[in-house]
Design a protein that fits this description.
Helices cover 96% and strands 0% of the residues. It has 54 residues and is mostly helical.
């Protein structure tokens, strides 16, 4: 019985670790999308200012 209980505990720990990894990957993905949007906006503004100064 103890062996089966240990196996179930390890499975629960594995499930918890996978959930944490999924949350971290999602947060990093959302952050990268936001960074990409900010960089895109910045380059558009700088391009407009550069054209105005020419």
């Amino acid at each position: 019985m103890r062996r089966a209980q240990s196996a179930i505990e390890y499975l629960f720990m594995l499930a918890a670790a996978l959930i944490l990894v999924a949350v971290v990957v999602r947060v990093i993905g959302d952050s990268l999308n936001q960074i990409n949007d900010v960089i895109t906006q910045y380059t558009e503004v700088m391009r407009e200012k550069l054209i105005q100064n020419l």
